[in-house]
Every structure is written in C-alpha cells, then in structure tokens.
Amino acid sequence: MRPADKSGKAKANTRAAAAALRMLPSVDECLRAAESDGALGAIGRGWRVELLRSALAQVRTRLAAGACEPAESRERIAALVIAQARAALASDEPRLRAVVNGAGVVLHTNLGRALLAESAIDAIAAAARAPVNLEYDLDSGGRGERDTIVEGDLCALTGAEAATVVNNNAAALLIALNTLANGREAIVSRGELIEIGGSFRLPELMAQSGARLREVGTTNRTHPADYVGAIGPDTAMLLKVHPSNYRIVGFTTAVELGELAAIGRAHRLPVAEDLGAGAMIDLSRYGLPHEPIVAERIAAGADLVTFSGDKLLGGPQAGIVAGRRELIDRIRRNPLKRALRCDKLTLAALAATLRIYRREDEPAELIPALRMLRRNPAELEEIAQAARAVLAGRLDSGFGIEVIESAAEIGSGAQPAEQIESRALRITHPERSADAIAAMFRRARPPVIGRIRDGAFMIDLRAIEDASALAVTFPP
Length: 476
Description:
Blueprint (H helix, E strand, L loop, with lengths): L2 H20 L4 H8 L3 H4 L3 H20 L9 H18 L8 E2 L16 H12 L18 H11 L3 E5 L2 H13 L3 E5 L5 E2 L3 E2 H8 L2 E5 L7 H7 L4 E7 L15 H10 L4 E6 L17 H6 L4 E5 L10 E5 L1 H9 L2 H5 L3 H16 L8 H6 L3 H16 L7 E9 L11 E9 L5 H9 L5 E2 L1 E3 L2 E5 L16
Parallel strand pairs: 1-13, 3-6, 3-7, 7-8, 8-9
Antiparallel strand pairs: 2-10, 4-5, 9-10, 11-12, 12-15, 14-15
C-alpha cells in the first residue's frame, strides 16, 4: 500500500471513531436499557450506576483507540456498554474469599490462622441472628459484664482467679503494661525483646503502653541477679516473653518463670508472661513438641498471663489476660478496655471453643487446628493419593503430579524450629515455571495457596482434610 493510501485509511478510521464517540449514550440512557437486563436489573441502583459508568468509560476508550468495531447506532453502543457492565458484574467477588491452605502451615496468619469448630460457627450465627445478653444480667435485670460470658471457663481451664478478653494478644499485652507500668519501668530480658510479623516489635508496643523498657542480661544469657540488680523505685513489674517465633541455641541461660516469680514476690512486684500461642493442653500427646500450657504458667507463679485465642487454643482472634483478680480488676477499669474489647461474635465463638475443652475428653476431635496437627503420616498419605486423583482429572496431561514426603509447620510463631512430617503434591509442567503454576492455582476457584520448593509447586496436605477441596476449576 502506498503512503497516501495508508494516510487515507488512518483518516477514515479516525473519522469513524469520532462518529462512534458522538453516538455514545448517556448514563441515563444506559440505565433505562439496563432495566430490562436480568442481571443488572436485579441489583441496587447505586451499584448499577457505578458499573455502567465504568463500562461506558471502557467502551469510550476502546472506540477512541479503534480497539473495537465502530457501531452504526446509539442502541448498538448502549448494548456494548450493557455487555461490559454485565461481564464486570459476573466477575465481581467478595474481597474476603475462601481459599485452600496447601502452604504447609496449619496456623497461617495470612490465611486467618485457626479454623473454628462447628459449635463455634453455630454460636456466631446464633449471636448474629438475635439479640443476646452481652451486657445484660438475666438474674438481676440490670447491666452485666461481657467478660462473664467466658471468664468462668477460662478460670476453670487455667487455674487463674480472673480473666478478661480483648481483641488480640498484642492488645492484651498493651493493656496489661499500660495498667501496671504506665510511666514506670517494666524489666525484660534482652533475649526476649521479640519482633513478630509485620515488623511489630515488643519495645515499640511497650513505648505505646507508656511503660519504660528496662533491659537486663544479654541476648543469649540472663541470670536472676540481672533482674534483682535492675529493680529500683521506678520498677513497676517484671515481664517474661515466650520467644515463640525464634530459638537461641548454644551457650544460653534464661531465668525460669518460677525463679522470676520468686523475685517478684520478694520485691512485691507483679510478674507477667506473654505466652503468645496459648496452648490449653499438652501437644506432646500428639507427638508434637511441648508448648507452654497456660495453666502451667499460672501454677508456676505468673500473676498475669497473656495469650491468643486464635492460635493453639483454636478459637477466634482474641487476646486473653488471666491471673490475679486484683490485677484483672484494674485492667477492666482501664479506659483502654472499652477501646480494645471484643464484640458479641468473637465472645460467642470463644465461649463455644472453651466449652469444648471443658466438656470433651479429646478436644482435638472437634477443634480443627488440633485435629490437623495430630494427623498421622498414614492418614496424610491416603488423602494425598486421593487428592492426586482429583487434580489429575482437572489438569491436562502435560502436568506431572507426584505424592512426596513433606515437612509442615504449626505456624503463627509456635515451635518455629520444629517441623511436622507431612505429605504434599509436587506439580510440574515441562513448559511452565513453578511461579506460573502457583499463579494458575491462585486464580483457580477456589484459589489454592501452595509453596514453591526445589523449583516445583507444592500443595501440602497437612491442613487439607478432604481431597474434594482440590476439585477446583481453572479459568480459561
């Protein structure tokens, strides 16, 4: 084609695009057209307007760029807008979506940590559907205290005199420090100045609480004399922090809780311990490493223990403070308590979870986090073979699917140095990278979250209890 011919064709296309743009319908015209559309007509007007405006902008851009054939009528362009809006509506999904946890981390913080027991889910639904006696005393007819919903069970399970609940364990430690040590010193071993996920550091939390950090000992060795030597007129409390997300090994010495409690009693100072994971039972019964049990720490002399509801306890996100009644009462009177308190849904789920521990001989049968942790290799091998068959029916023949031995983790900082024997599916393709396969599984319905190891995409079965969870569909 000669240059003049090319120029003439370009001008003709420009004129056609301009003509099509002049025929663009208004939002009101699109709204009227959408009323007869089954999908768009069934949604609220505000959302319908939002979808149509977005679709109109996209069609305008495509027409201006010559990316679609110029339409010969206003009605035809309106139909393009309606089709674009309908496609956007069909692809719209909630931001919070169910996924398959094949990452090999049972308590995966990014995936919501502990799954709830069925009774806890039922309790949430019941509390959501009807008014409840959240802060209403049915005996007296007067105002009640929401902590009473869970305090009795917490005290029975931990041996504490009293307990209170806030919205997570960081909040539990924050309010304990603010109540007991605001404007004064809290003594902590240097080896326990932890950082948890999201660059969240204990010294920074202490600063926000108003407590002044007094470090003692060294990173790897702290002795009783270090605490005693640091106690002075400004000392308000002694704090011990369970280093749940790391281990220091080798030439190490730490002050045991019983020793620290004795120092606290001798100097009339409260001793608090932040446990983090909050195990209620001995995990060693399942062949897992022993994790400090809340009741053991109370018995060892801690005046306060803070721990999570959604880690090894296996309940909803919550921060629990258990210990001496006089200290718990002071925490309840702290104005921060209202800012950090839990809502009725959290308390309903936590209460149902605690009832399992109190009423059942084997809580791991009903609490998903514990049930997943105690699964044996034979069970995992069986489900891995079943899952392999399920996936083989959904992937083309170019994919290789192999059952291999794997190592899973508890997660959420619990026993980071320990791995649990598991099984995984190793998925490969001669023309696709492990990253590409991982992305494909994240786009599946439901999305599958795995991990990449040794150049291959893997789906660990430790947190997948039914092979049908991998009966996924892949978008084209």
